[in-house]
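Quick one: structure tokens for this chain, please?
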Amino acid sequence: MQAHWVILPSSTFYDRVDEACAILYNTDNGLFMVSTNKSFIRLIDRLREPKNMGSVAFDDKEIADFSSDFSEALNICVLKTVRTEDNTKPLILLPILNLQRDLDKGKNIDDRLFIMEKKLRFLTGVNIWMSSSTYDNSDKKKVAYRNSYYKDVCSPVYDNQPLKDMVESGLLIKILDELRLSGVARVNLIIGSSFLAQTSPDKFAHILNKYPFSFTISCFYEDYAAIESHLKGVVINNLDYRVYLDKYNLYDGNVVFKELYSDKASFLYLVSDESEVENQEIENLELVPIWATDNIDFFERNVMLTIEDLQNTVLSHQKIFRNMKLNANFFGVLDIDYSGKISPHGSESVLGNLKDGCTLLQAVCKELKENHTWRLTRNLTSCCSCPFKYICPPISVYELKENLTSVCKIRKSLENGKK
């Protein structure tokens, strides 16, 4: 005698928002469906029960209450049906998120941290503001504009405060010494114009060449040639440049972008409006959107995702599970400014100061405990009631600066009953 079974394939990710809303996502092809049928959702919950091992017997009468959702699920292969001889039950091994040292387990996070070994290995990236850029009164408009986004993209900051840079203060050596025990492979050194007057190129090169890291120097376009010339007489192993341009690099409305090319430099054009790229030759530039407080329309047109964008992306279970537990935009990255303050990337919160004896390990432990950005998932925000919260990319720095929920295109589509 044949038995008829419905099975939940191991390629299906399922998340129930509540008893009347759930998403099923096919990690093989990126197709998905959102169901608001309670009877259908109860079927999926049954399939997920450990005792059922991903399959339950059924007949056509049982699906009458949710035949439309059931048919859609079969069409996109988030459910399947099979017939077996002698009533043999199919067994499906469903993927589960199993973190042995999950910080969210248990009541005492200090206890969870205590059993985690080599915590500094969680540190995989570091942005170091080596020095500031100086300015005069005629640059105030440009300074205000650039200082509004410098933490977002890790570009130089403008500040006339007379502070020693990282080399002369000894902070750079302190940082690099401790990074030896971390998971960092590349160190981002953000350099402003004051670096040229304060730093000996020989001393700088000697320090960098002592360590087994690759280095990136991030600077503005107007400082790039001077910094490269300043370091021309020394050899620094594994060094490249990240060069930023914005609308203040447009001379008479133009800059010859096609001439910007170097095998050891990448050029990024920071854009806050479409007018800044119109009629420009930008084939050698990476365009990076920046939030400028008054350009929400620009973001809505060019940055914010739609349902169609999600349909054009295929996520593995691994990436979805990652979105459930941490923020890949920020996790493992620390920002350190030239005064010694340490912050988790994407946050203005201060974890400590190198000048006060704070170590990178202490900063890592504090961020793992306090969770300013590293483990800030959409489930901890107003996105918690959205079925796409783990399918959408992690929270971005723009969303931390401004509440963009009200203009979320995906939320609007759901509210309008579209798919």
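DSSP finds 16 helices and 15 strands in the chain.
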